[in-house]
Amino acid sequence: MMKNRLRKNKILRSICLLLLVGILSMLGGVNVNAASTTDGIGSTGTTGTTETQTNINEPGTSETADDLKELNVANNLTITYDNGNGEISGSLKILMTLTAISLAPFMLVMLTSFTRIIIVLHFTRTALNTQTAPPNNVLIALALFLTFFIMSPILTEINDNAIKPFDAGEITQEEAIEIGMAPLREFMYEQTQTKDVSMFMEIANTAWDGTSDAIPTSVLIPSFVVGELRTAFIIGFLIYIPFIVIDMVVASTLMSMGMMMLPPTTISMPFKILLFVLADGWNLVIGGVVKTFY
């Protein structure tokens, strides 16, 4: 019985809903507008019964951004972007900025002196055999500050010639990228060997006349990175030489004393640290690395 009553109620509700929809569809459209009289009362004594609307212009009739701001379009919704006269370049600029921020760590490693510095500092710590002293955070922070010190003239030139004119609207985005890449290309080209460029140009099956302008950026960047790795490993080998001598002397002394079970590195590490401190090793290493870029 309860199920039959529920079904009847559902049927009755559906019939009432259909009747209501039919009645509404039979009614004619009603225009509701504001009154044209000064007191806000129409001719029939109520508001919104005359044909006069409050629209100054219809949507889509404005030609400039100023005309668009003056529209009073009753119940229509108008959204304006108050930047660049309504253009969407602002949103594209934000997208490009976020992309540049996400690629910034890779650009810092591949387009600057960071690679050479961090590898040399790592070799220095390994040669001293101090394991985690200095820790990685200290080495990375030191490499960052040294990178900013070396690249500061280039960054200043990019800011003055590319970023500021682009923000002022004096140059286009393509021109800003081209002007900003010029100092970086010059820096990378000075630290790149000819044989590395020739190798990548040969792989790309592209002819090269020996000038820097003829090198594509896609070829210059890997050539620069390969050169940085080569230079960093050469400096690391030179750093290892005095510490290897200490290891050999300590190992020979222990063998002559019959103490073959004692690891030579355990005895040699204090002597390495002593030699490094007496020779002012950090000054020599950091100063030598920085001077290789000048």
What's the main sheet like?
none
Strand content bin: under 5%
User: Could you say which structural class the secondary elements and strand pairing correspond to?
Assistant: mainly alpha
Give the fraction of residues assigned to helices.
Answer: 55-70%
| Secondary-structure element pattern, one letter each | HHHHHHHHHH
Instruction: Give the termini separation.
Output: 98 Å
Poorly predicted tracts of residues = 28-49, 79-88
Query: What is the number of helices?
Result: 10
Number of strands: 0
Instruction: Give the averaged pLDDT, no decimals.
Output: 76
Coarse morphology: extended
What is the gyration radius calculated from CA atoms? Answer: 38 Å
Topology:
Elements: H1 2-26, H2 65-69, H3 89-110, H4 114-128, H5 136-167, H6 173-190, H7 194-203, H8 217-256, H9 264-278, H10 281-291
Task: Tell me what the structure shows.
This protein is mainly α and 294 residues long. Helices cover 66% and strands 0% of the residues. It contains ten helices and no strands. It has helices at 2-26, 65-69, 89-110, 114-128, 136-167, 173-190, 194-203, 217-256, 264-278, 281-291. α4 runs parallel beside α8 and α4 runs antiparallel to α10 (281-291). The longest helix has 40 residues, at 217-256. The model is unreliable at 28-49 and 79-88 (pLDDT under 50).
